[in-house]
Amino acid sequence: MTGNDYKFDFEHMIQTHLLPLQPPFNYIYYGGIVGKQIATMVAAVDKTNADGEYALETHSHPVVVYNGQTAEGVVWDKCEVMDCRVVCSEKDKKVTLKQFNELLAMTGGAKTDNPDNPMNLLPPMNPNYLRSALRAAGIVLEMPTDVNYYGPDQFGTVRNFKIKLLFDANDDGLCVWSQLDQSPLYFDIEAAERKNVLNLLLGQLDDWEMALEEFGINIEFEAGSQEDVFDGYIEFEEEEVNTIIEELNKRAKRR
């Protein structure tokens, strides 16, 4: 059971144990928040299972200092330690661009009850918001040093980014994304109507450019082939895809 399935249960909780951690502490990420974990609170909870039998569950919640909270920290009761991702150690407060993209992608796919979200999924974290959270924690974003950077497996200052977008659809809506292993910047949108696809992508482009504005990046988009998508471009015509790519590149070049 993960923090997505479990809510902190005061009514059935029978005991807790606070396990302090020793420095150097790790910075962790969950749900768009970055904080320094200083302890773990283990809660033992008595439950009744589906057969009416007694069951004992244990849950481990991180105790975290973030956003100017007191040195004692606060319990992240909406998640468990296993749901969080280690960002870095306080001894080496930096993340690579690849790690940054992976943090963004963590949020996408989590379930939400938002009726306005046709696919019932949380969108990925806003890159500008995540960059602000890292800055607030004093964590530096390390960029590759190559002038041309076309994928996460090449090292080296990012000036020119080429983003391969994949287009797909299902019964719930339209989706466009870039794969983490093929593009240096993570894009991922879902739209109920095709008329919203371009605007959502333009919004993510704006977010990325604000997040990385001090690096003077240039972004270029291209469409992945239909073979890159399991069912091909179900709802997207080639002309439509080309128009979206053209408009994205026009916006990117105006920067």
Overview of the molecule:
This protein has 255 residues and is α+β, with helices and mostly antiparallel strands. Helix content is 20%, strand content 31%. The strands form three sheets. Strands 1, 2, 3, 4, 5 and 6 form a six-stranded antiparallel sheet that branches. A hairpin with a 2-residue loop joins strand 2 and strand 3. The longest helix has 16 residues, at 238-253. 28% of the residues are buried.
Main attributes?
13 strands; 6-stranded antiparallel sheet; disordered N terminus; flat; single chain
Radius of gyration: 21 Å
Low-pLDDT windows of residues: 1-5, 108-123, 150-156
The SSE string, one letter per element, is: EEEEEEEHHEEEEEHEH
- In terms of DSSP E residues, the strand content is 25-35%
* Tally of contiguous helical segments: 4
State the helical fraction: 10-25%
Mean pLDDT: 78
Main beta-sheet strand count, sense and barrel state: 6 strands, antiparallel
**Based on DSSP secondary structure assignment, what is the total number of beta strands?**
13
Secondary-structure class: alpha+beta
Shape: flat
First-to-last CA distance: 46 Å
